[in-house]
Design brief:
The complex is a heterodimer. Chain A has helices at residues 4-30, 33-49, 60-86, 93-98, 105-110, 114-125, 130-137, 141-163. By secondary structure, chain A is mainly alpha-helical. In chain A, helix 2 (33-49) packs across helix 3 (60-86). By secondary structure, chain B is an alpha+beta fold. Chain B has helices spanning 2-13, 21-55, 67-73, 113-147, 206-210, 214-230, and strands spanning 84-94, 98-108, 158-169, 173-182, 190-197, 202-203, 253-255, 261-265, 278-282. Chain B starts with a helix and ends with a strand. The chains are: A mainly alpha, B alpha+beta.
Chain lengths: 164, 283
């Protein structure tokens, strides 16, 4: 067990060292600079106020990722609702699809459901281990594996669609 | 597919980091930490008030006997599972000559009650002595003040503070300082360094930690660090015999959070007063 102060120090150090990574992760969800900044701000606040819940500082990385992923996903959900209520016409996805070029994988990932998107980003862009991903997403390892396979299958399909 | 993933990753890595990120992160951290620490301090304060309340009027300094009370006050765990340093007593003393804030710690959870009691008794006696001495000193000062024509209305009680500072706590070591000082003169400040080996239940000397060659080794490192500090024109040290010559086996030191020995030189010991007390981390 560590003192509260010591844990606080470790966390602050972690945030300072990895803020850019955390920002990119958040940005990949919300696709907007200001929103991504909001996510990071909220995540830092959350992490520092709920620090007592972090029992083992070895997991500080996965714990922080989890906070950022959850905060991002929540924000997207909230924003979606707002868009529905304001009756804004559907998002500009059609335009993107209309591009002749084969769709970038990065864009294709955006079309995946959140749980698939998360595993792909964490696995291939953040180079995390399957165990870490299980830890972050809070699902069993086997589920992480299935999600990755499903996600890849869907991505292939999406890419193919673009080619034809 | 692999290529695509690589491409996606490239794209991911190239997401622009806004210039404002640094500033926002710093601000958010500072704000959150401040709020959190306030909460923690509030808890501490409540305990302090409770302690002062309980002791008010009783004016007994040897609360050591009162175990159940001590347990009540010690709700502020400073460190984790094994050894911890807790506030044993926390109260205010008010006499005509002085106003004292007394906070004496005790160790607990070390594993050996005997060792624990020995150390706690030592801390308690030392600090109670200090307080007694301060009382006599302040009483004399007041007398002198009045005799030399000072007016009683204008006399301000001397502030005496007894407090402690935890330096580090691990499964191996518990390192802390118990100190006392007053507003009369810095010459009366007293710092007691405690470095405990909580595995083997003993107080540690420099030699215990650093081994036989420690004097030579420490001297070399201190000299190196002084030379490094001298590069900054704002720092200055006493030279020759007045300055640093060698460390002393009984000098003050503590163990920092990375389990490193930190040597502490008092103010004026090796450098002019404005340099304050100086610390050297030994690798």
């Amino acid at each position: 067990m560590l003192t509260y102060k010591k844990k606080q120090k470790i966390l602050i150090e972690y945030i300072q060292n990895y803020k850019e990574k955390l920002y990119r992760l958040a940005y990949s969800y919300v696709k907007d600079e200001q929103l991504a900044m909001d996510v990071i701000q909220e995540s830092i606040e959350k992490s520092l106020t709920s620090l007592e819940k972090l029992k083992n500082p070895d997991y500080i990385g996965t714990w922080m990722y989890r906070i950022v992923v959850n905060t991002s996903v929540n924000l997207i959900r909230k924003n979606k609702k707002i868009i529905y209520m304001d009756e804004v016409p559907e998002r500009s996805q059609k335009e993107e699809v209309g591009i002749d070029e084969k769709m970038d994988l990065y864009e294709a990932i955006d079309k995946l459901k959140e749980e698939y998107k998360t595993v792909i980003m964490l696995r291939y862009f953040e180079d995390l281990t399957l165990n870490d991903i299980a830890e972050i997403t809070g699902v069993p390892l086997s589920t992480v594996k299935t999600r990755i396979y499903t996600a890849i299958r869907q991505l292939k399909k999406l890419s193919k669609c673009e080619v034809s | 597919m692999k290529n695509q993933i690589e491409k996606g990753k490239q794209y991911y890595k190239s997401i622009q980091i806004p210039k404002e990120l640094d500033e926002m992160v710093n601000k958010t951290i500072n704000k959150s930490v401040e709020e959190q620490n306030k909460k923690h301090n509030l808890r501490k304060k409540i305990t302090t008030i409770a302690a002062t309340f309980a002791l008010c009027g009783s004016f007994i300094l040897s609360v050591n006997l009162n175990q159940s009370f001590a347990e009540g006050v010690s709700e502020i765990p400073v460190i984790g599972q094994l050894a911890k340093l807790v506030t044993f007593v926390d109260y205010e003393v008010e006499t005509e000559a002085l106003h004292g804030n007394v906070k004496i710690p005790s160790i607990e959870g070390v594993g050996s009650k005997e060792f624990e009691e020995k150390i706690n008794k030592q801390i308690n006696e030392k600090m109670n002595d200090y307080l007694e001495e301060a009382k006599i000193r302040e009483e004399e000062y007041k007398k002198a003040y009045l005799e030399t024509g000072g007016k009683i209305e204008e006399y301000n009680p001397i502030e005496v503070t007894i407090d402690y500072e935890l330096k580090s706590a691990s499964d191996k070591y518990l390192s802390f300082i118990v100190y006392g000082y007053d507003t009369l003169a810095s010459a009366y400040a007293e710092f007691n360094y405690y470095n405990l080996d909580v595995e083997n239940m003993q107080t540690l000397s420099l030699e215990d930690i650093l081994g036989g060659n420690y004097i030579e080794n420490c001297n070399k490192q201190v000299i190196e660090q002084i030379e490094e500090m001298k590069k900054n024109a704002e720092n200055s040290f006493f030279e020759d015999d007045m300055g640093f010559t060698s460390i002393r086996p009984d000098m003050n030191f503590y163990i920092n959070e990375s389990d490193k020995v930190v040597l502490v030189f008092d103010k004026y010991e090796i450098a002019p007063g404005y340099m304050g007390s100086l610390e050297f981390v030994i690798e």
